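Page 37, continued from 36.
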């Protein structure tokens, strides 16, 4: 999910692989002094739900899928088959090895999640896998941009989000968002 400018190059503002490092710092795994974080999801529903969660208990209109600057939100499929050295924090043995508990990975407490991500980065990883706090069966990936971007490519053109997309309908339903 990203604010799309159709003629943008993938790694420039408005592109699917653009990392707005200057705006980072508050995200789950942000450490902008060390790396840019590109937040990804392994399923379209998870990606959409992460963006729509602010609409819980309210309604979603087509206009909500555009930003104030006029850019449409879009969904892009990425080919990550070349992405190596991703630490899997959904693996119990990995958590044990790192002295982490599931509650420390899924917390909203950034004083815990950001240092854990920084340690993974400092070990030389390209990113880390973790479960969504919205639905534990959804797997998300935080890619450390400088290392991961050369390993990622678009697997097709981005799709502008619409209220009629199956992933939007499913995410809205799971979050209790009414589509109008």
């Amino acid at each position: 999910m990203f604010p799309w400018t159709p003629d943008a190059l993938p790694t420039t503002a408005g592109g699917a692989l653009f990392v707005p490092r200057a705006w980072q710092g508050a995200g789950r795994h942000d450490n902008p002094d060390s790396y840019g974080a590109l937040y990804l999801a392994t399923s379209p529903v998870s990606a959409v739900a992460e963006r729509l969660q602010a609409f819980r208990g309210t309604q979603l209109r087509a206009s909500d899928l555009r930003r104030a600057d006029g850019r449409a939100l879009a969904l892009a499929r990425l080919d990550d088959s070349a992405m190596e050295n991703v630490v899997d924090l959904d693996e119990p043995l990995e958590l044990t090895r790192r002295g982490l508990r599931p509650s420390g990975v899924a917390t909203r407490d950034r004083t815990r999640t950001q240092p854990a991500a920084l340690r993974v980065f400092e070990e030389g990883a390209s990113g880390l896998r973790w479960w969504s706090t919205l639905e534990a069966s959804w797997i998300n990936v935080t890619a450390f941009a400088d290392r991961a971007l050369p390993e990622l490519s678009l697997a097709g053109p981005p799709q502008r989000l619409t209220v009629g997309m199956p992933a939007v309908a499913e995410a809205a339903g799971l979050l209790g968002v009414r589509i109008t």
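The helical segments are 44-52, 92-98, 102-105, 110-122, 145-148, 166-175. Flag for discussion at group meeting. The chain has a mean pLDDT of 96.
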